[in-house]
Amino acid sequence: MKTSKGLSLDTLYKLFIYVALVGLAISIIVPVAWVFFASIKENKEFYGNPWAMPNGFYYENFIEAFQEAHMASYMLNSVIVTFLALLILLIVALPAAYVLARYEFLGSKFIYSFVKAGLFINVSYIVVPIFLMLLDWDTALRSIGGESLFINNRFMLAFIYASTALPFTIYLLSSYFQTIPTDYEEAANIDGASYFKTMITIMIPMARPSIIIVILFNFLAFWNEYIIALTLMPGDNKTLTVGLMNLMSAERAAVNYGPMFAGMVIVMLPTLILYILVQKRLTQGMTVGGLKG
261 near 35, Cβ under 8 Å? Predict the structure, then answer.
């Protein structure tokens, strides 16, 4: 079907999609690029045209953010917490997802429905109950002569992160396991492989695209999480996002914008690097099933 000017509706639709995608890309790229350029400006440059290019590379902003604002220690805490959370999550979620996808047993459907129900729970709504529960455990531990274990503990924060991410991860992985033909498991069973060996050596490697998606999405969630980290880490073991908010408040009050934007770059850079590294595999994981052809 063509319009009065000879353009088909299909062409107009493609043109609209193209313009929309370009506009969306610009709306994302421009703010990110602006933050990068602002992070290398001297403070006096912010009082002129905010869209002007920096006069040079003022790297002292990053030095101040790392040294005076302790961003290095905050980054180390975030790295430790994110790595532990991903490790715990994969250790628990991979076997659970495989079993729920491949085997039926008493209560398996109820467990799977219970897991899917967790997708609709907003973690922000249960932060306070989690904090009060851990605080009670800490109080009971100190009452018998122990030390604080559940509050301001990086491992406990990682455990909470992994726990809150389990519903999404199990659901995604189990959906992918269901697309893989059972022929591989039957062949492994004929060769005498145990269930555990079949899962480790055959099924998990085949689910690598889905695992990469899980790692990327959960890395972004854990790395950028703020509310739980602020609530459960009131001491010195702050994560990078909490430290960034403190830095922004301090530098904004001191009218010192360079280190503030440098801190933003420090938070954004790992996620951008990770996305660039796994972009191709991420696309494959979203489009490829368990077996081609």
Answer: yes
